[in-house]
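Researcher: Here's the sequence for the chain we discussed earlier.
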Amino acid sequence: MELKFMYVIVLFLLIAVVVIVKIRYFTTGANTSFSNNLFSDQWGPANTKAGKRIIRRHIYLRKPRVINITKTNSDMKTSRHERAMNSVRSRVEYAMVNQKRYIDPYVKLDTLACELGTNRTYMSRVINEEHRKSFKRYINDHRFSELMRQLIKNPNLTREELVQLCGFNSISTMVRVVKANTGCTFREWKKRLLDNKSKEDDES
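Model: Thanks. This is the structure I predict for it:
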């Protein structure tokens, strides 16, 4: 009886050991193997490469476009220069046409550029590019045009009066400008101008 009882206890212990081993196998080994298989299936070499390709593609798609900064800066400088030149050009025309700054016999490039809020370089460049003239020639041409208007308006004005009205420094300067623009002396040019004006008045 006691021997049978001992056999039962040993058998029970063996069964218990087997059960414990099985449980540990399923809870550790099997799960570890399963988890390793799962990890290898999802993140194995093939899938890892695919993942890198996806990441690289994502980065490539989101990569910002590279802008040619040098070209953009050059364009900006060019447009700034053009705006500055146009601004100076309009200010010079306004000063000549509306304000008649050429009537001042002492007007100079530096002083007029300062009045217009620019510098002599920009102003000289504008006059050269727009009219193909130097500043002195540009001013004297405006004075010559004013001389024509004054004579047509009032032919009896003396040379001294014309010098003051048109901005010439002296009578000799006025005569020299007339000669340069017409090829005639002041008296010859004045006579032709008034004769043409009389013919136009008669025809009209």
